[in-house]
Design a protein that fits this description.
By secondary structure, this protein is mainly alpha-helical. Helices cover about 85% and strands about 0% of the residues. It folds into 2 domains: about 45 residues; about 200 residues, MetI-like (MetI-like fold, Orthogonal Bundle). The chain contains 11 helices and no strands. Helix 4 packs across helix 10. It is globular and about 75 Å long.
Amino acid sequence: MKAKKGLATLVLLAAAVVASFAYLAIDYRALLSAQALGSMGRFIAEFFPPDLSWPFVGKVAWGALQTLAVAVVGTLIATLLGAALALPAAGRWGRPARAASRLLLNALRSVPELVWAALMVLAVGLGPFAGALALALHTTGVLGRLYAETLENATPEPQRALVQSGAGVLVAFAYGTLPLAVPQWLAYALYRCEMNIRMAAVLGFVGAGGLGQMLYFHLSLFQQAQASTTLIAMFLLVFAVDASSGRVRKGM
């Protein structure tokens, strides 16, 4: 029975993929024609060599720091809010609070970061503050759900033993359950920070500052050499953050 259901699911997925390609009606012959390939080659060639003049490199470095700050601040806010919402979402305050907090977390993470950024730009204006708020709102929904599931899956024996020994509920939670959850919480926060670095670089396209805004500006003016330098900075920033975060997670 399970094999038949699995086969039926695969057939439906294959049919959906085929229908998607048919609906899009992509002309692959035109895409891979000599004229199209030549145009793509000329476009790529315009990005070389990148602009490595010191004044512009300084601007790019400042944009990279701004992007990093947006991601870190947004993740930090989301970590605190997610931890606060995880308690009721894990059922610690009763079923009504659990349902309400989970609904809020679902609503926060159902809106993509770019949409939040567009809304925050309208609310607080252009700049990195809008980007930090956008990342904080979406990431709160993600981390809050992950934190709540961590609490639900934590073994209850240590907290139960402390309560039976006469400790209060708050003390029992702080010393029995929280030490089991915090390492996983930190690992989730670091992973989301990596993702937010990438997203912070994209949010600049809607006016949230950083490298993304620089990239959008130079591409709109057809300044491919400057855009190439910005893209290199994005790659180096993401690579450095990924390597650093990976080492921290391994040491936890």
